[in-house]
Amino acid sequence: MESTFRTENLSVFYGKYEAVKNISLDFPDQSVTALIGPSGCGKSTFLRSLNRMNDEISQATIKGKIWIEGQDINAPDTDVIKLRQKIGMVWQKPNPFYKSIYENIAFGPKYHGIKNKSMLDEIVESSLRKAALWDEVKDRLKQSALSLSGGQQQRLCIARALSVNPGILLLDEPASALDPVSTSKVEELIIELKRELSIVIVTHNMQQAARISDYTAYFYLGTLMEHGDTELIFTNPVNATTQEYISGRFG
Ligand SMILES: Nc1ncnc2c1ncn2[C@@H]1O[C@H](COP(=O)(O)OP(=O)(O)OP(=O)(O)O)[C@@H](O)[C@H]1O
């Protein structure tokens, strides 16, 4: 069965330069797909195109299709704000708003029209619980989000993405700026969240990809060299360059 979220012959260009070349990939529900590959091979470009973040880059154009629930996300009538509600994104560096912990989470739901205070309270609590942060912050919701540690800020950003109930979460190296304890919290969180979501994560950390992902896609020079079950890719890759990359012999 085809996944509800997939790319079909997707290419992404910066001007004439083709950074992502003709990639067809599907992202099954309730699973984690890791995008791996050497620096500059197009992982982030590909990831950003999945919720149209490349729209912000004037020279970026795409060819091919990205489908979600039978809709072409680049169709002219797509509401990009609603699209990003369905497909949340968390970046490498935590980027909380200069607002309180509570307001960071309530911002999205308010933007989408929820005004009722008790409803907002509920969303704030459930999002922070899902992001495994509630117990650490429940007594300081009015404090600035910037008073949190880096690892807490990253889980706050994940909670913020979850507050609008996305079905898909895109993570661009979400733990690369974190210490090992915070990294393992974020990894546990990803494994927990996939019960409800489809997650796509860019990571340079091979152990992390092996630990948390169900599927792995190996990118090289803008092309998809190999894609399949993480266990198979890590134990018996078909491609010699995949083998070299995951064993640390290049990249
Ligand atoms: N805004 C941009 N304008 C022009 N070229 C870009 C832009 N962003 C990325 N590129 C180029 O596109 C190619 C792919 O970059 P991208 O950041 O997607 O790779 P990556 O695999 O995510 O790399 P890394 O692992 O280092 O983050 C690179 O050659 C890069 O220089």
UniProtKB/TrEMBL annotation:
Domain of life, source organism: Bacteria
CDD domains reported in the protein's UniProt record: ABC_PstB_phosphate_transporter
Coiled coil (UniProt feature): none
A GO cellular component annotation in the UniProt record: membrane
UniProt keyword Transport, yes or no: yes
Residues covered by the ABC transporter domain: 5-246
NCBIfam families documented for this protein: 3a0107s01c2
Protein's recorded name: Phosphate transport ATP-binding protein PstB
